[in-house]
Design a protein that fits this description.
Elements lengths: L3 E4 L3 H10 L5 E5 L2 H9 L4 E3 L16 E4 L4 H14 L4 E5 L6 H10 L2 E3 L5 H10 L1 H13 L5 E5 L6 H16 L4 E6 L5 H10 L3 E4 L8 E7 L18 E4 L11 E4 L6 H11 L6 H14 L9 H10 L5 H8 L5 H13 L1 E3 L2 E8 L5 H10 L6 E8 L2 E8 L6 H9 L3 E5 L3 E7 L9 H23 L22 H5 L1
Parallel strand pairs: 1-2, 1-4, 2-3, 4-5, 5-6, 7-8, 7-10, 8-9, 10-11, 11-12, 14-15
Antiparallel strand pairs: 13-14, 15-16, 16-18, 17-18
Helix pairs in contact: 1-5, 3-4, 7-9, 7-10, 8-12, 9-10, 9-11, 10-11, 13-14, 15-16
């Protein structure tokens, strides 16, 4: 990120510089020679110059943040005009000074990213606007987007949920605001009835990629609501990620030119809402409605892993939300297949103390699994659930918990990372495992026999992993071979 430039250094500017100079690369330009000498004595880089003269800043590298901070309003307004013309991509904070008119305020708001217009609170507000994580991240994101000379592929995880869909659409809007064309892309399908309703009712522009589609038209790639190519998406493992924005805890280092991982927020949609606000992009009604729905789903209506940032994002979005459409999205018709999956989960559950595991067998819609896991969790005496089913040669798993001493994300990673991919949060997680041996099974009876053994493997690995959580008794378990998850045809015939 670029350095901080202070133009003019009046009484307010000097107080802010004292704080900004601690650990930040800084340059102060002011007409007052005594101020220059004082700052230099304190090891703050400063030079004498007229902040209203554009030639004074013409040869500087592009600052990340500019603070216009003379005491006089007319000086600050002129300095702001030149700074914005010289550095169009920089974030500018302007102090109005002590004699601002309504015209001054209107002109400064049109050019500056943030306007400080209250002496009593000016120092704290300037520091908040120039040093917060989201402000710095927005500057870095803008800089990264401006390096893209071509089309940006905004990649969601496979079979995306509302949070991923909304966040991807929002990043497309942000990219457009800086002149970058982008597509919101995903592999797999959007099968959950509420997710389909969201996409259709809001008329969201998404691109569904096939596994063999070429990605050559994209100059750059962004990963949204997940953080590693090839994990829960069908991208090449060695794909270079230019931008990564996620709220899930990563398992290992995350490569990327710009990486924003915020585990403390409840949804990636919260992060993208902040960026829309920071970029001053007008909130489109469809995007705002999708983002609010994404936050509500991932936080279970602000009851699960919610943060102050999620509430703040919701307050920003609410005036732009189409509440009629939002109600339609939240009350879709439940498909019969989903109800059947839930019924099988309840019937087939293996409950050991407060932990319930259920296989629902072959499925046609993997989005029914989290709904079944939620329904099991609503049963009396159940605090942790795992529901899984089989589609093609894959096993898909969905887990939920309301037990305070269970971390499902870590539990599923410990149980299944070696034989598939897994991840998520403490109270909500998922995994997918490739069961290649099913493809080579001879006849329905043999398939059923293999599925029965695989079900035992999955259940036992989960019970074994979760029993290591403190204070969670889950009865007894047996260890079953893992060969089902690794055997190919050559191994089977040998």
């Amino acid at each position: 990120m670029g350095f901080r430039l202070v133009l003019g250094c009046g009484s307010v500017g000097q107080r802010v510089v004292e704080r900004l100079s601690d650990g930040h690369r800084l340059l102060v330009i002011t007409e007052d020679q005594r101020t220059v000498e004082t700052l230099r004595d304190e090891s703050v880089p400063a030079r004498r110059g007229d902040p209203t003269d554009r030639s004074v800043i013409a040869d500087l590298e592009t600052p990340g943040v500019i603070f216009v901070a003379a005491d006089r309003t007319d000086v600050n307004r002129a300095a702001l005009e030149h700074a914005r013309a010289e550095f169009p991509s920089s974030s500018i904070v302007v102090y109005m000074g002590g004699n601002a008119t309504e015209t001054d305020r209107r002109e400064c708001r049109a050019l500056a990213d943030h306007v400080v217009d209250a002496e009593a609170a000016m120092v704290d507000q300037v520091l908040a606007e120039t040093t917060t994580t989201s402000a710095e991240a927005a500057i870095e994101l803008r800089a990264q987007l401006q390096t893209i000379d071509g089309r940006l592929g905004v990649m969601m995880h496979d079979n995306p949920d509302p949070d991923a869909i909304a966040s991807a659409v929002a990043l497309v809007d942000i990219a457009a605001s800086v002149g970058v064309d982008a597509d919101a892309c995903y592999y797999g399908e959007i099968s959950h009835q509420e997710n389909r309703a969201m996409v259709n009712l809001l008329d969201l522009d998404l691109r569904n990629l096939a596994p063999d589609d070429s990605l050559s038209e994209y100059e750059a790639f962004a990963l949204i609501d997940h953080s590693r190519p090839g994990v829960n998406d069908q991208l090449p493992d060695d794909l270079h990620a230019d931008i990564v924005i996620d709220h899930h805890p990563p398992r290992g280092p995350v490569p990327g030119e710009f990486v924003d991982l915020r585990e403390y927020v409840g949804a990636t949609s919260t992060v993208l809402t902040e960026y829309l606000d920071r970029f001053d992009v007008p909130f489109d009604s469809a995007t705002a409605t999708a983002l609010l729905y994404g936050i509500r789903v991932d936080t279970n209506d602000f009851t699960r892993e919610v943060s102050a940032a999620d509430f703040n994002a919701a307050s920003l979005l609410w005036p732009h939300v189409d509440t009629t459409v939002l109600r339609q999205i939240e009350q879709p018709t439940v498909e019969g297949e989903t109800l059947e999956t839930i019924a099988r989960a309840i019937k087939n559950r293996d409950q050991r103390d407060s932990v319930a595991v259920a296989s629902v067998g072959r499925i046609g819609n993997r989005d029914a699994l989290p709904q079944a896991a939620d329904q099991l969790l609503a049963m009396e005496g159940v605090e942790t659930t795992l529901v899984f089913g089989f589609m093609d040669e894959m096993a898909f798993l969905s887990a939920r918990s309301r037990a305070g001493d269970v971390d499902l994300g870590e539990t599923l990673r410990d149980a299944f990372d070696q034989i598939g991919s897994a991840g998520g949060h403490a109270d909500m997680a998922g995994a997918q495992l490739e069961i290649g041996i099913l493809a080579s099974a001879d006849g329905e009876r043999e398939v059923d026999s293999i599925v029965s053994v695989v079900e035992e493997v999955i259940a036992n690995r989960f019970f074994e992993a979760i029993r290591t959580q403190p204070g969670i008794p889950v009865g007894t378990y047996t260890r079953t071979s893992e060969w089902l998850f690794t055997m190919d045809e050559d191994e089977e015939t040998s």
